[in-house]
Amino acid sequence: MPRKRTLIPSPLAWSTGWTKTTPLPPPPVPVVAERGGTQLRTPLPVAIVDTREQNPLSFWRFRKWFARIEHRALRLGDYSVEGMEDSCVVERKDLADLIQSFTTNRSVFISRLRRMSELPHSLLVVTSSLSEIKSEYPYRAANPNRITQSLLAVLTGLRLPFLCTDTHELAEELVASYLYQTFLYDWLDRNGHGRFLGEGDL
């Protein structure tokens, strides 16, 4: 009997066939809000970058997503949106800083995370992949399992989400989009449009 030909390969085959990933360029804007098939005229947020942030994320590539980008000291976190400094906070860590924060500076870091968890919009961003976090650290005595489980405790115990990105550049795009969308949803809600981008959608 002739063998049946599979028209659509298994998703498992797709994933195993992709040995190299290349991120697409960012969109003109992260998302748009529509009502009745018509795009709403919504204002652009003002992004705030804390002046004490070391090796800060640059939002220059995404400047059209914002009315402007300001650098000034924040009371909490590294990134926020003007007018939402007390409700929207992003804390960024590279791998070395994350390890130090969960070991040497653990009590100070946990205190900061607890304050963030009390806000409606908080996000911890790690500019490292989960595989790197879970792997042995050269020249460091820290235990990768302890760091990984600490991250999960932040998620489950504090209910504070975290996001890992493979590169610094990808973190720039995702944080810029998070700030943009947080502001947009808040604006829609405050102006009587509801917290959704389109009817029957997110």
Account of the protein in words:
The structure is a single chain. The protein has helices at residues 11-17, 95-102, 106-117, 130-134, 144-156, 168-190; strands at residues 34-35, 38-39, 46-49, 68-71, 79-81, 88-93, 121-126, 162-164. It has six helices and eight strands; from the N terminus they run αββββββααβααβα. Helices cover 34% and strands 15% of the residues. It is of the alpha/beta class and 202 residues long. A hairpin with a 2-residue loop joins strand 1 (34-35) and strand 2 (38-39). The chain is globular and about 55 Å long. The strands form three sheets. It has a three-stranded mixed β-sheet. The chain has one domain (44-190): Rossmann fold (3-Layer(aba) Sandwich).
CATH class: Alpha Beta
- Count of DSSP H/I helices: 6
Number of domains: 1
Distance between the termini: 48 Å
**Fraction of helical residues:** 25-40%
Radius of gyration: 20 Å
Broad shape: globular
What is the quaternary state of this protein? single chain
> Biggest sheet: strands side by side, in what order?
4-3-5
Low-pLDDT segments, ≥5 res? none
Largest sheet: 3 strands, mixed
SS class:
alpha/beta
Give the tally of β-strands.
8
User: What name does the CATH topology carry?
Assistant: Rossmann fold
What is the CATH architecture assignment? Answer: 3-Layer(aba) Sandwich
Q: What is the percentage of strand-forming residues? A: 5-15%
Q: Residue-averaged pLDDT, rounded?
A: 92
The helix/strand series, from N terminus to C terminus, equals HEEEEEEHHEHHEH
